[in-house]
Design a protein that fits this description.
The protein is built from 16 helices and ten strands. By secondary structure, it is an alpha+beta fold.
Length: about 450
């Protein structure tokens, strides 16, 4: 699966792609790659070992340089200090001086996390989701800690977890659902957690981190990021008085996905213990970050009660009961998960048996049409026509790369028709006179000449 453009909304989830910072192995120097491998092996060999000497590895120069390579290219939105990655090119010493300053602050223990800038992004239901943007310096240090802690936490994560992990992706979770349906687990508890990232209790999260990390300096860094004051901007663009955080991991922080995943791992762990549904209900858990389903042959009140006690009473999170439901997929109901719909449908050739149809969900198609509408709106008339077509092509490539699994032919056909219609309307709108296409060619042929991608 190719990396997707974080600036384009593909309709896979209403969570911002800015939250995701997967570690790219090709950006790691050999010594750092070896260090991560050793940490991972140590954690695997000794499941109860607590790592007590990690801080000096965080501020190693090769670690900070690798952190910069991961963060510098992605840092589009500036933090509260307004500093962007490209701004360093115009400063004395540039990136090298910037990383040296971070190295000395960490080494001398004078580094202090800065305030987090809060912005609001729209969700699919029309509501707003808070996004916390740390300063560029904080993002680099957070990424350095991720590079050291990720291989340790990865040793504990279970195979049912697929989100925000190297070597795992959404398609793995979708394939796991398909396999479990084939094994007869056709009653599904489709869970939705209310504001999971924003409501994780700090004390319980830190207790989970301390289960593996004993280094006080690293723990102090994490606590500082969790409790960093949040600053919002008023209508005039001026900062409001800062507010203190007492819970949650700020979405937009580089380390937030790892911390949230590490916390939610304890749902996986409890599920597979002797007293969990894995044993007494032969149930299976598939989790992608805070989205998860529990699949079984029959969903009884005991499973629902187990989820309530584990998630709400033990972990301090909240189940969104308006969106949480039990799907009996064999009775004709559909399961929407990670942008796809799973549903048993009648065989097109009239045979008595039904087949499992896996296709892009209606919500995903709606979001895709909204994105295409934005890419071809009247606000894009300033762009040259080939640039508009290339923007549309880039979106279609990313969308089709994610939704190519299952049976997407109908969705692709609908999106092709919609994209052509939007581009024809856009071309006719570019001036008072309609777009002059060659007289001997149709709109379809002309768009082919312009290079419009056909899914």
């Amino acid at each position: 699966m190719q990396p997707l453009d974080p600036q384009v909304h593909y309709g896979i989830s209403d969570r911002s792609f800015l939250d995701r910072h997967p570690v790219q192995m090709d950006l790691l120097p050999d010594k750092l790659h070896t260090l991560r491998w050793k940490l991972n092996q140590k954690a695997k060999d000794e499941p109860k070992f607590r790592f007590y000497a990690l801080y000096d590895r965080v501020y190693r120069k090769d670690v900070l340089e690798a952190a910069w390579k991961h963060v510098g290219k992605r840092n589009k939105a500036p933090g509260i200090d307004g500093l962007k990655a490209e701004d360093l090119l115009d400063t004395p010493g540039g990136v090298e001086a910037f990383l040296e300053e971070i190295h000395q602050e960490l080494r001398n223990k004078t580094y202090r996390p800065g305030p987090v800038k809060r912005v609001w992004i729209p969700k699919a239901d029309g509501k707003l989701r808070p996004l916390g943007i740390p300063t560029l310096k904080d993002r680099v240090v957070q990424m350095a800690v991720v590079l050291i802690l990720e291989p340790i936490f990865e040793a504990d994560f279970l195979d049912c977890s697929h989100g925000f992990r190297p070597g795992h992706n959404a398609h793995d979770a979708l394939e796991s659902i398909r396999e479990n349906l084939g094994e007869g687990r056709k009653e599904i508890y489709d869970a939705d957690l209310k504001g999971c990232f924003d409501t994780i209790p700090h004390d319980k999260l830190m207790a989970c981190v301390r289960w593996r990390v004993a280094d006080r300096n690293v723990l102090r860094l994490i606590e500082g990021w969790l409790k960093a004051p949040v600053v919002e901007m008023d209508e005039r663009g001026k900062p409001k008085p800062p507010k203190r955080n007492d819970k949650g991991t700020p979405q937009g922080g580089v380390i937030s996905p790892l911390l949230a995943n590490h916390y939610l791992h304890w749902i996986d762990k409890r599920f597979h213990e002797k007293g969990g549904p894995f044993h007494w209900a032969n149930a299976r858990l598939i989790r992608y970050a805070d989205d998860f389903v529990i699949m079984a042959r029959w969903q009884g009140p005991r499973i629902e009660e187990w989820i309530r006690k584990t998630v709400e009473e033990w972990m301090g999170l909240t189940i969104n009961r308006e969106k949480t439901r039990v799907v009996k997929i064999e009775d004709g109901e559909g399961l929407d998960f990670l942008g796809y719909t799973f549903r048993y449908e009648q065989d097109l050739f009239g045979r008595s048996r039904k087949y499992l149809n896996v296709q892009p969900s209606k919500k995903s198609l709606k979001k895709a049409r909204e994105s295409l509408r934005e890419l071809t709106s009247h606000r894009k008339c300033f762009k040259p026509t080939p640039a508009v077509v290339e923007d549309v092509n880039r979106f279609l490539r990313g969308w089709s790369e994610y939704f190519k699994h299952g049976y997407p032919r109908k969705a692709f056909r609908d999106l092709n028709f919609y994209a052509r219609g939007r581009l024809i309307a856009h071309l006719n709108r570019r001036s008072q006179r309609k777009h002059n296409k060659p007289k001997d060619k149709s709109h379809y042929e002309h768009l082919q000449e312009l290079g419009l991608l056909r899914l």
